[in-house]
Amino acid sequence: MNEKNFEYLRDQLKYTGFGDALESELKEKMQKEEPNFTLTHNTQYGNDTAAATLNFNKSKESDMYFFNSYKVELQKENSKENLEQTFYINKGSNITMKEAYNLMEGRSVNKDLTNKDGELYNVWLQIDFKQSESNGNFKLNHYHQNYGYDLEATLSKHPIKELETPKYKEDLINSLKKGNLQSATFQKEGNEIKQYIEASPQFKTINVYDSNLQRIDNRKSKEEKQSETQQASEKQGSKKQNQTADDDGPEVPKEAKKKKKSQSM
Fold this sequence. Notes:
7 helices, alpha+beta
């Protein structure tokens, strides 16, 4: 067995999110020197179960093994059918197991990947469950830098408390880039409300959910933004009428909007 190859693959598994639980089994498989082998790894995310099958192939020219891909079978709570997707190992930055789960949940992940020429490029990835590839995978949509999605600028349009502290802001952005549904503190009418957000590069915005993980409609966001603009104009004694609200204004429930209007009358 090639010891350096083993150490490389061991670290590769660790940094792809499989920890060190597969180390001894990896060594055993490599010592058999078979042309290919698989390893399995199960992970629980809340009440969802993700079973991964990792695929390894031996080089025809040497004793080196390569970690080529892993297939994830996601069994969601209260669902009879499994969702399957294969993730291929990239020379630069692999999609981790947690990121794979987030993608299969429909969220978006930001990665620095390597093209065929060995050049790094940044991209947002999102699975398109309406389209399938010839290999049986769902299509993986790519939103490159020139697509124009700026997560930090998008977040700045919302009254999120964590953005006021550089460290919390950095942690929030990094978590969203990994595809997580991240909790955030929204400051509204002097109150702090815990909500959840996720990146939405396709529509150049973020999706906001309430404490019960119910999606908050963007139309409410527009109405709330307009209400805030009206209040600001009244305080300044302006006679001008407000213009149409921005699409990416703070997202709040209708109840909050109604209270706000009553206060401004």
